[in-house]
Write a structure and sequence with these properties.
The protein is built from 9 helices and 5 strands; from the N terminus they run E-H-E-H-E-H-E-H-E-H-H-H-H-H. The N and C termini lie far apart (49 Å). The longest helix has 15 residues. It is α/β, with parallel strands linked by helices and 212 residues long. It is 44% helix and 13% strand. The protein has a 5-stranded parallel sheet, with helices on both faces. Strand 3, helix 3 and strand 4 form a beta-alpha-beta unit.
Length: 212
């Protein structure tokens, strides 16, 4: 996939640093920049795949401008970027229809993983414990994509991420993103718990070892 990104932040230094990180992502082909919601909309990037949108912007904030950005970049996933990681800020981002939330304190690896997650069509909000959200809902309401089911099947077969990536033709980073999403959907935080939850839901079957 060759992705087109739009970085919207009024701090040139931060924007430059972010650009240096995201340009290292294997799927990123083109990066545009803007310092405000108005500048971003004026670019008319209707083919943008992902927008990293700062919440604190001059004039119109990222939260208030999210709808306008969505109109200007109709097919793009929009991830809000903020210096705050307070639950209220994350919840507000969700309520406004953002596809993800990225703290400015995130490491380069976390940023690249968030990009992979967003480009894969998955929500990328910070988890309260670093893996699956605390108090995640029971697995009964889980909905997994076909690719996530592929990953889950191999995960339950005991295969490590490296082997899963090879077998499915994915990068290890993408597999990690899928595994994190699976954990969130199943309400678990370990592979063994994922296996038990998947068995209970009938998502995977364990071959019979009965002898004739």
């Amino acid at each position: 996939m060759s992705a087109r990104l739009l970085l919207v932040d009024d701090h040139t230094l931060f924007r430059t640093g972010l650009r240096l990180i995201v340009q290292g992502h294997p799927s990123v082909e083109y990066i545009a920049e803007a310092g405000s919601v108005a500048e971003a909309c004026a670019l008319k990037m209707i083919d943008a795949d992902l927008v990293l949108l700062d919440i604190q912007l001059p004039g119109m904030s990222g939260l208030d401008g999210l709808r306008l950005i969505r109109q200007a970049c109709p097919k793009a996933r929009i991830v809000l970027v903020s210096a705050s990681v307070a639950p209220d800020a994350v919840n507000e981002a969700r309520a406004r229809g953002a596809d993800g939330f990225l703290p400015k304190s995130a490491s380069g690896e976390d940023i690249l993983e968030a990009i992979s997650c967003a480009l894969a069509g998955l929500p990328c909000f910070p988890a309260s414990n670093g893996n699956a959200p605390a108090g995640a809902k029971p697995a009964d309401g889980a909905t997994l994509t076909s690719r996530q089911l592929d990953v889950l099947t191999l995960l339950c077969a005991g295969k490590p991420n490296k082997v899963i990536a090879r077998d499915l033709g994915l990068s290890e980073n993408t597999v990690r993103v899928h595994v994190a999403a699976i954990f969130t959907q199943l309400g678990v935080n370990s592979r063994s718990a994922a296996l038990l939850a998947a068995q209970r839901m009938g998502l995977v079957s364990i071959p019979s070892h009965d002898t004739v």
